[in-house]
Design a protein that fits this description.
Elements: H1 3-27, H2 31-54, H3 60-68, H4 74-101, H5 116-123, H6 132-153, H7 164-183, H8 189-196, H9 206-231
Helix pairs in contact: 1-2, 1-4, 1-8, 2-7, 3-4, 3-6, 3-9, 4-8, 6-7, 6-9, 8-9
């Protein structure tokens, strides 16, 4: 498959993840469980829709973990990152258009990720004021688990590839159930970038905390890539 096709697939898939997941958070009024299911479903649908084209990473952290594990080239990883971030930002911009069409003033948190007391106040009821260190640990740890599942179920030696999309989607759902009240759940730098660009609330800056939601998932993914390589080495 040509890299251009893979990039288009990643752009489309990440667009859908942000539109479906963050769109549900913004407009769905379904609570944390509903938002968690929405993110999981976006991954399941794209895994079966475009997985045969690009692998349906939909996430720079996933691409990094796959590269560290030796399953893609560094060049392709960077091109995937470009496509994923573009797709996420386009989705975020369209959500902004829809948001403004409702007559709402400002954007507030806009489903962005954050931590601390200022974020808790801005995000509202149900959120907890986790520290910077705690947020980093949560995001890195949950991304690590996410990548271990992804690398395991997509391992060609696994033999149950047709169920990979379902396993990955359910894992992402569980991850959101754990961490939405803490950080609004990132585990995906592209998803964090797309919403931070458009969030606008007094007393808290999404862009000011964005670094954590880029670095922590990448750290967790890189560790998972190394760990899976050690845990399940390919036979010489």
């Amino acid at each position: 498959m040509k890299i251009q096709n893979k990039m288009m697939a990643e752009c489309l898939g990440t667009f859908w993840l942000v539109l479906g997941g963050c769109g549900t958070a913004l407009f769905g009024h379904v609570g944390f469980l509903g938002v968690a299911l929405a993110f999981g479903l976006t991954v399941v649908t794209m895994a079966y829709g475009i997985g045969h084209i690009s692998g349906a990473h939909l996430n720079p952290a996933v691409s990094l973990g796959v590269w560290v594990n030796g399953r893609m080239s560094f060049k392709d990883m960077l091109l995937y990152w470009v496509a994923q971030i573009m797709g996420a930002i386009i989705a975020g911009a369209l959500l902004l258009v829809i948001w403004r069409s409702t007559g709402a003033e400002g954007t507030g948190v806009f489903a962005a990720n954050g931590y601390g007391a200022a974020f808790q106040t801005a995000a509202g009821e149900g959120y907890q004021a986790i520290s910077c260190g705690g947020a980093f640990l949560v995001e890195a740890l949950l991304t690590f688990v996410f990548l271990m599942v992804i690398l395991g179920v997509t391992d060609e030696r696994h033999g149950n590839g047709k169920f990979a999309g379902l396993a990955i989607g359910l894992t992402l759902t569980l991850i959101h159930l754990v961490s939405i009240p803490l950080t609004n759940t990132s585990v995906n730098p592209a998803r964090s970038i797309s919403q931070a660009l458009f969030a606008n609330t007094d007393g808290w800056s999404a862009c000011g905390q964005l670094w954590l939601f880029i670095v922590a998932p990448l750290v967790g993914a890189a560790v998972a890539g190394c760990c899976y390589k050690w845990l399940a080495p390919k036979e010489a």
